[in-house]
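ARCHIVE CARD
SHELF: 3
SLOT: left
DATA:
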Amino acid sequence: MNENIIEIDFTDEEQKKIEDYAGKHGLTVEETIKNALFEKIKQQGLSFVEWKEKYHKGWYLNTREQDENLFEEYLDYLKENKLNYNEVN
């Protein structure tokens, strides 16, 4: 099984809404779902401090150099998730 595939079950009502939206905007159902998931991820984007708190416990004990390295890692996290620094900070 491909671990990059997400299985989502929709109710009949949700499926109808997705299909209607896709039809009105000239999109496929898959594109509509992908766009919705991207927006949800973007809305849940973490600021640098939130990201450190979530992924690097004890970050406040870091030296300036360690914090700079974490910031580079954070920028990679944003890039991997196609997020813009200015949108989440």
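SLOT: right
DATA:
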Amino acid sequence: MNEIESTFVKPFYLKMMGLNALRTADDLWADLIAASRTVTVREVRWMLRTGHWRPVVMGAWFSVAVTAEPVRDDLMAAMSQSRGSLTAPPLAAAATLVAGTAAVPAMTSYIEFMTASAFRDGSENVVAAAVEHLRGEVAIVPTDEGRRAFLGIHDVAIRLGDAVRATRPH
């Protein structure tokens, strides 16, 4: 385990993966904000690029805490390469904030992969709700449960970004 993983991944990923943040983000909020204030663009890009789900989860969350432009492409690549519910909801929530409508093709790619997969896990509905939120053309109509989950996880991402901007040195 390298320093990025021990500092920014291991302490948080279990509570922030998938939709867990809806229930558990507040439990580690102070520590998450403190880490978000120190994470660098280079570290976020590494997390998003590694291809391993644990760092990707936290790369998604920390992407809302750094300057958007340098991480945007890595975030969209991680979204299009996601393969399930552990990474897709945080990636979709972050992508709507960091990349906006530019993330729609990556999210659509994920939805198409999941709907053709034998391993459908419901996360395609959360991602479809993100596309719908951006007023993009949805590959599938999200379920009401998917919409509620997206709005919840999106709210956590907004709160995290706002909290970091309020406390990060300028």
